[in-house]
Amino acid sequence: MNILALGDVVGSIGCRFLRKHLHAIKELKGIDLVIANGENSADGNGLTPTSARYLFDSGVDVVTSGNHSFRRRESYEMYDSCPALLRPANFPSAAPGKGFEVIDLGRIQIGVLNLIGVVYMESMESPFDTADRILSAGVPKITLVDFHAEATGEKRSLAYYLDGRVSAVFGTHTHVQTADEMILPGGTGYLSDLGMTGPIQSVLGVKPELVIRKMRTKMPVRFDLASGDCHLDGAVFSIDEKSGKTTSIERIQVL
């Protein structure tokens, strides 16, 4: 079982680049399921029904999100109506949508859990407690976690905490792909951050000069997305269907 996880897709430019290359990646790597973080897939931040549908129509099976999940009000209804569009499970229960879904591929079921970190981010329920609650209710043998978090220490801690209980834990949010892929002692695959899909000459997808102005002046700045050549970051997790354990991890980057 080969599952492709893609880092934060940034704006319409990132969505178009994903659509251009995803089919070939799926064919080349024998991909059974695609998970992509889409919380920045709309131009100007956040996610809209249009950007989410674009990702699904491009071949993404599950769209996860993060701290920008609800930046665009027009997306609220879609979180409730579309099972494959997830928001972090440790958001308050009053928030639209849900953070865990089981994808039925016919011959096998795959669980996808979306969590958000609390270190250097907004206060939420502990991702450790949320994961315990969901896992204790019963999940498929193959279950993956998109942990949308800032701190590498928090990401690695959760991965070790869930080692042997889920198939893989991969981080999103920082938009920078890390090189620390590993299989933990209990068979859980791990990567601190998948990276992003969007413009190369940018600061996390934004025009560099705008971020520099914000850093230097501390004044409000509208963050417009950069343009130009793009890259696509992610990783392929190969998982044994009988044990649910990761057998290999391959980072990918398409330019």
Structural account:
The chain has six helices and 13 strands. With 255 residues, it is α/β, with parallel strands linked by helices. Strands 1, 2, 3, 4, 11, 12 and 13 form a seven-stranded mixed sheet that branches. The protein has a six-stranded mixed sheet with strand order 5-6-7-8-10-9, covered by helices on one side. The longest helix is centred in the N-terminal third of the chain and has 19 residues, at 11-29. The relative contact order is 0.17.
Biggest sheet overview: 7 strands, mixed
- Helicity range of the residues? 25-40%
Number of strands: 13
The H-and-E topology, N to C, reads as EEHEHEHEEHEHEEEEHEE
- Output the radius of gyration: 17 Å
Which stretches are poorly predicted, pLDDT < 50 over at least 5 residues? Answer: none
Instruction: Sum up the overall morphology in one term.
Output: globular
- Assess the beta-strand content as a share of residues: 25-35%
> Helical segment tally?
6
